Each structure stands twice: as structure tokens, then as C-alpha cells.
Fold:
Amino acid sequence: MTTADFLPFSRPTIDEDTIQDVVACLRSGWITTGPRVQQFEENLKNYFNAPYAFTVMSATSGLHLSLIALGIKPGDEVITTSLTFVATLNVIAALGAKPVLVDIDPVTLNIEVNQLRDAITLQTRAIMPVHYAGLPVNCDEIYAIAKEYNLRVIEDAAHAIGASYHNKKIGSFGDIQVFSFHPNKNMTTIEGGCVVTRDEEFAKKFSQLRFHGINREAWNRFGKNGSQHYDVMLPGLKSNMSDVQAAVGIHQLAQVDGFNARRRELAQRYYDAFKNNKALTLPVPPSENEGHCWHLYCVQINPENTSYTRDTFMEALKDRGIGTGLHYLATHLFSYYQNEFGYRAGDFPKTEQVCDRIMSLPLFPTLTNEQQDRVISTINELTL
Ligand SMILES: Cc1ncc(COP(=O)(O)O)c(C=O)c1O
Structure:
């Protein structure tokens, strides 16, 4: 087998028009935040039907700046789950606040809303639910609880571009949504993300925090009508997206619904191929998950029905030229979270079981049926 035959678990889809536009941007003389970012943000607002959409350098920085904008400070608590990329917890801990974790629902792999109330204390300021793998959380219940306890909601929508809940796009309702455009996400800007809100006060603060606390975008300052004068309202950070990235994003956003339609087809094919395979626990099928945007197709290895563990199974697939992803190791068991917050094995049994068994199969829009059939037959041969 050559490297060329290796099938990765994810691969970005970049077309020739996008490449041409990146080249045009590089030749234009304006490569950082400028007209393409402005255009991309307009397109994002239209896509989400939202009054505010801010591009950022990553979802991590979007989450971080959102917490700062909400005034999260040492001693505060923010509720989320352990089944996530560690960025979700890190941004809370980086502000001296405590990530208070809740176990997951083992079917949806999203936060167990029935345990949410028990996690709320006088220090709780916000809930940060994760739309895991692109399946929306129970927004009705989470927003009802947030209202009851006067909490803010920052949806970690890193996986959820194009997902919908009760036929409404994630990002088109609710408090604050943070999307990731990392290359393995459903659309990419190389690195990057965006933050969407309908809250004018939050938006004003966020846009200043995104660029040094300055009250005007830099590219206006240097435009022909711009002034060199500006004021600083907050000790902000720097998370503006470049026009080169926005050139990619404009094309990706126009294609993301099509990308997601193909992801859905592939998810259905996996479901059909594995529904009788007792070695695997599958996600709920696409036909029952209308709003799922299928960022990941995660299966769990059932130790009762195969001699493979998740790790040996991933190795066996790698040896056969098939890449898989591990989303995720239980974040509460990382050394920092054990040492700093006292989390221990056994604290979140459902999350821990899933984290021991889960792996993500190849899923990206240009994956062909033939390539997917190779994944399917290899897995079925190993496990049936
Ligand atoms: C659930 C979740 N939250 C946050 C992030 C951070 O996204 P980014 O890489 O854009 O900072 C990721 C990235 O993989 C993620 O999966």
C-alpha cells in the first residue's frame, strides 16, 4: 500500500474557484482583514438570518472572547460536558472559572439535560452545551433552564454548521453560537471560526475584544476616508480573520449545505451497512435525525462482541490503510483537570464508557462510494 492509498478520516474540499480567489486576494495588496472579511460576515449573517456574525481566528478564541465579553471571572462556574475537545474546558479554566461537568445522554452523546439542574450553584454564570458530532442538543430544555436561573448560553457549535433544531438552523436562534472552520470541520477557512448572536450589547463588546479593544476596524483607519485616531475601550485580544481566509470561507459557505447533503448520504450508507453488526454501536440513523449535519460518524466498539478494543481496532484499520479519529478522550481525566478541579475516573460513567469505545470513521464530501465500501468491507471482515 502506498501513502496515496491511505484514506484519511477527514479531508477538506477546496475547488478551483476558491484557489483562484485566494490567488486574487494575495495579488490584491490587501491580505489581512478587509473587504473579503466584510463580505464573508455579510454572507454569514444571511446564512444564519442573524444581526451579528463575527469571524475569528478559531472557535477556541471565539469561545474565549465570548466568556470574557460576558464578564466570566475567577470563582464563576460554567457548565459543559467532558465529551468534547479540551478547548471547551480550557477557555473556562483560562479565565480562572470552573468548568462544571455534566454526564452525557448515551444515545445522543449530548449533555444529559435531566442532570443539568443539579449542577447549577450560586456561582453558575453560563451553560456551554456542545452539539456533539453535529447533532443539536435539546435546545428547548437548555434555554428553559437558562431562563429559569438567569444564565447565559454559549453554544459550542464547532461541529454544527448547517445543523438544525426543529427546522431552525443552529445559529438562527438562541443566545450565542460559536462555529469552527478548522480544516476537518464541515466547512473551512484553514483555521478560523465565527461567533453569532442577536444580543446588541454583547456584539458591541465582542467586536471590540476581538481587536485590541479598539472601537473601529483597522482597515477603515487606513482606507481613504479613515482617520488615524482611535480609542481603546477594553484590554482586548487579537482574533481577526484575514482576507485570504475569508476568500476561502466565502466559497465554502456557499457550498456547505451541499457538503452536508453528501455527508448525510454517506452516514446513511454506513448505517445500512452496519445495522446488523453487533460489534458496533451506531449513532441514531439519519432518517431519525433530521437536523444532524454529520460532522462526525462515530461508532462505538462493543467489547462483548469483539476481541478488539477501540485502540487495537483503530490500529488494525490503520494497518489496512484506513484513518479514523478519536473524538474524544474524556477531558475531565486529563492531568490538569484532575489536579486543578479534583475530577476522577468514575465521575461521569456514561462519558467514560463512550470515550473508551468511540472512534470516527472516514466522512467527508469527496469520499466516494467505492472508498466508503472499502471501509465498510474492511470493518465487517474484522468484526463479523
Ligand atoms: C467541540 C469543539 N469545540 C471547540 C473546538 C475548537 O475549535 P478550533 O480548532 O476552531 O479552535 C473544537 C475543535 O475541534 C471542537 O471540536
Observations:
- The chain is about 40% helix and 15% strand.
- The CA atoms of residues 16 and 22 lie 10 Å apart.
- The chain has a mean pLDDT of 96.
- The pocket of pyridoxal-5'-phosphate is lined by residues 58-60, 84-85, 87-88, 130, 156, 158-159, 180, 182, 193 (CB under 6 Å).
